[in-house]
Amino acid sequence: MTAKKSIKSIAVLCSGGDAPGMNAALRAVVRYGIYAKLHVYGVHKGYSGLLEGNIEELWLRSVANIIQRGGTVIKTDRCKAFHQKAVRAEAVNILRRKKIDALVVIGGEGSFTGGHLMGKENDYPVVGVPGTIDNDVYGSEYTIGFDTAVNTAVEAIDKIRDTASSHDRVFLVEVMGRTSAEIAIRVGVSGGAETIVVPDEIEGNKGIDSLIKSLQRSAALGKNSSIVIVAEGEKPGSVYRMAHELKTRAGIDARVAILGHVQRGGSPSAMDRYMASLMGAEAVKAVLQGKRDLAIGQVNGRIARIAFKSIIGRHKKPDRELLRLAEILAS
Fold this sequence. Notes:
alpha/beta, Rossmann fold, 7-stranded mixed sheet, 4-stranded parallel sheet, 11 strands, about 20% strand
């Protein structure tokens, strides 16, 4: 395979929160790019590193023995300065001065927004690879890191259930998901949770009322312990308020467990390594074919290309059928 004449080199960076499998995606971009006779450059520490010119050429050995490692070896960052149009223009100038013809961004919706604006404003090719544990990239069924995060959370919940059963207690387990219910729902169904509380139910009395009714229903069925999965929502730690409300309004003494950033770490699962490898390679293929302003994703179980404009500013809605299924199976 030979690249189009206009594309002789590409750069790759990770942006936003780290996710298990980012290294596998990085490895795929580098090795497929080199296979296609491209010069491949790694940008250290996301858009912030790009603005600092923290860029180095990567080789086959540069990405040896990283597929099994969590996090990202080229680091990541959240760059507030990139919200400015002039800053995005300077980022493209830096890439062009280094004779880099296109950029692959591994990250989530926020990172894609930066890449989309940078590319459109400056006529520069940008392709995204969805790396975020929240699985919240609209239009894609899967994002890199999601499977590992779910497995980590389920393993923790299995252990929490042991102590919940031993002491006849209710546990509120907070999992990550600021605007997305994907982790909460998958973990809740997989972990046999009695109830799942999604982001739009966290604030206000409606969510508490529903939770109280659910726990009272479980108690009436003879359950002495319960696991409730709570998505963190916009304000992590709100699960403590929920525990207080349960105590004061219904006399339910609930313990709290916040899994937090442990869900981000650890060696990526086989699924995350596999999907990251496919998506990373597909990103390079798209660049070679002259494609831009799009992300790689999964649609109907297959690797697909999704326009940035159909992703940015849109959010997945909770699957109410799965929420109902979780309650039925836990009854």
